[in-house]
Amino acid sequence: MHNINELNSILSEADCLVSEAQLNEALDKMAQQIIDDLADKQPIVICVMNGGLLPTGALLQRLQFPLELDYVHASRYGMNTSGSDLNWTRYPQTDFKDRVVLIVDDIFDQGHTVEAIIKWFEENGARSVYSATVINKLHDRKVEMRPDYIGLDIEDRFLFGYGMDYQGYFRNLQGIYAVKGK
Ligand SMILES: O=P(O)(O)OC[C@H]1O[C@H](OP(=O)(O)OP(=O)(O)O)[C@H](O)[C@@H]1O
Ligand SMILES: Nc1nc2[nH]cnc2c(=O)[nH]1
Question: Per the database record, which ranges form the Phosphoribosyltransferase domain (predicted)?
Fold first, then answer.
């Protein structure tokens, strides 16, 4: 457990890059695009834990059509930050063979996570795989593909809030912050 005074000063000194209102506007636009494309496709929405939790909940509230929900946990950070191999600790339980799948995550940074998850679903029998991330971080260290639905482009800093953690904390914030000086 971290010192609460240190955590509070990280938050109070951080730069707020995206407000709750800006997040909601971006989520509304993403949801409308998803509705236009998938409302008649009975997709399986896949939340990529842990970061995808808030974005998935926010999108689901805006998607009032027939869909199913499942989640995966597949992570490269903390294990091997340079490679694209994922450490899967939870596979989906819903039968997605020949189904349309929508992957939802918080951030598309280098893109290895979303790219590898899409590939896994495609190789294991999904009919088609779409992807959505609230944040796209702007830099030139990325994989070639891009998510089908992106909320906001953000500068290349260490971010937290709205799914993203600072040392395990602050995933719950209704805004996106950058650590001071980073
Ligand atoms: O685009 P990339 O460079 O691959 O990075 C993005 C991934 O990193 C974070 O997850 P992380 O593996 O840290 O796990 P978490 O969701 O539990 O925080 C985030 O939630 C994305 O899944
Ligand atoms: N918390 C956090 N996780 C990430 N995973 C990939 N990029 C980031 C980031 O900027 N912040």
Answer: 23-167
Q: Is 167 in the pocket of ligand 2 (CB under 6 A)?
A: no
Q: At 91, phi and psi to the nearest 5?
A: -95, 160
Domain tally for the chain?
1
The residue range of the domain holding 147 is: 4-178
Q: CATH number for the domain including 46?
A: 3.40.50.2020
Question: 132 near 149, Cβ under 8 Å?
Answer: yes
Assembly ipTM: 0.98
Q: Is the dihedral of CA 92, 95, 97, 100 positive or negative?
A: negative
Ligand nearest to the CA of 78: 1
Per-residue tens of pLDDT for the chain, all 182 residues: 789 999 999 999 999 999 999 999 999 999 999 999 999 999 999 999 999 999 999 999 999 999 999 999 998 765 455 556 899 999 999 999 999 999 999 999 999 999 999 999 999 999 999 999 999 999 999 999 999 999 999 999 999 999 999 999 999 999 999 999 88
Q: Which ligand is nearest to the CA of 114?
A: 1
Mutate to test the pocket of ligand 1, among 48, 77, 81 (most ligand atoms within 8 A of CB): 77
